[in-house]
Amino acid sequence: MFDHLKNKFPIEDHLWENYIPYFNKLEIPARTVLLNEGEISERIFFIEKGCIRCWFNKDGKDLTLQFFLEDGMVASIESFRKKIPSPVTIETIEPSVLWYVDKKDMDVILKELIEIPELRNKFIDMIFERTFDYMKHFVSFIRDTPEQRYLNLLKENPQIIKRIPQHYIASFLGITSVHLSRIKNKLLK
After folding, report:
1. Among 74, 76, 107, 174, which lies 20 to 30 A Cα-Cα from 82?
2. Left if phi > 0, otherwise alpha if psi is -120 to 50, otherwise beta: which for 129?
């Protein structure tokens, strides 16, 4: 895991040695809630193995916003940064191996690393990428049909189709599992 992070955030080895004690390992089963909607996020998670989804409850229905896989990072960023209630629940889909950093420790790391321009730019790029993903998903709901959204997901993130249960994918696409089955059957013909 640290090799991946070292590649993503190339800093001197002695700095990494300072930060490694801030990382805590979790091995947890599927369907483990890491953060409930309405709680204040106090941790940021790095995924070594497994799959996580962010979702919220609307009138008793789970609506999935995003999926995160290996080598990804997940938190309720707004809640983590601003100490406001999280608008989402974060939950594992598969048994997972995660590394987390508490907010107070991440604040120390960021304060030190923000002084390194290359790393500051990488953090900014990561935040923008997540924003771009949300915007793309949002625009897709306005512009595309459910079938087009499914085809886009199949093209851009085939690992999600292979690994994630159909009812979560349907929720992410804004349709029912039955509608998703119809789309899949239509495309097979």
Report:
1. 174
2. alpha
CA 7 to chain centroid, in Å, comes to 19
Q: Is the pLDDT assigned to residue 85 strictly greater than 80?
A: yes
Radius of gyration for the chain, computed over Cα atoms and rounded to the nearest angstrom: 18
pLDDT digits (tens, 9 = 90+) for 126-154: 778 878 888 888 899 899 999 999 999 99
Closest CA to 67 of 176, 172, 178: 172
Residue 96: count of CB within 10 angstroms of its CB: 22
pTM of the model: 0.88
Residue with tokens 């959204």: 149
Residue closest to 92 by CA, chosen among 41, 127, 55, 61: 55
Q: How many Cβ atoms from other residues are within 10 Å of residue 89's Cβ?
A: 20
Closest CA to 92 of 26, 8, 184: 26
